[in-house]
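Metallophosphoesterase
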Amino acid sequence: MKRRSFIKKSLHAAGALSLPLPVSGFTIKNSQTLKIGIVADVHQDIIHDGYARLRFFMDDMKKRKPDFIIQMGDFSLPRPQNQVFLDVWNEFEGPAYHVLGNHDMRDFGFTREQTMAWWEMKERYYSFDQGDFHFIVLDGNDKNPTPWSGYDRYIGAEQKEWLRKDLEATNKPTIVFIHQSLEAESGIANGEEIRSILESAKSKANRSKVIACLCGHHHTDYVKEINGILHIQINSMSYKWVGGKYQHRRFANHIEQAYPAVSKTCPYKDPLYTVLTLDAQGGKMHLEGRSTSFIAPTPKEIGISEADTMLPTITERNLTF
């Protein structure tokens, strides 16, 4: 029988996408719903109001008390002026996890190791269990095979071998977190190879143990199903990058001087984030939606041809696995 599921979009126009239905074969013990607070691409070192955005998210998480929170990379560099920002993140009383983004190293001359130490991140890639689920955090910033220019976006041999062994050791439905996408052209350079590793780890029902892969990096909002795995893009909390060609000074001189790259963005008026609810027994996932607007001028107003695809939105989705 063909397995199917549907995504319901509550914030923007709908349309159905065929996805796999629940299949038995996982080890389910607790059968309790799990809630995860997720934020991606705050970019404290680019956006001028990153502290206020994170403060809004954390105040909400304190009230709602998810099982854990996770930031999906491009968070904040270990600069003294950013300590108050990190202190806000560290206020959460439950587990709070980090994913390394490309801007969390090299920018302002900092290294991956310096950022990890500042975040108190013990391993650059790791896994953990929570309730009925297994979670894997990958580091997509291994050195690319030469020749290569720009930020590295690769998963090397050591990490690939670790990933294979980690997947072999679990019988729980598994979710992967990584900064850069495994399916987009501008994502992980060897993404197809990594997807093959995820797809090859089979449950007792002969389907991939991995049910979903969540990423940030691309500052956009969509879901793709590839060979039974949901690839979910989490939009940036803060902005859409537009570069020097479309830069525009929106803010007071002292802000523009302190954050010179903010003029190369189209900032979101309100912070975007989501809460993911997981139900292993029912084979259901719910991604909470949030929608805001751009701080003027909008991408369309500054003449970007693809402005209609640049949406300050995280779409609400009901998914099954």
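thats it. Confidence is low (pLDDT under 50) at residues 1-23. Helices lie at 50-64, 83-89, 112-119, 157-168, 191-200, 253-258. bye
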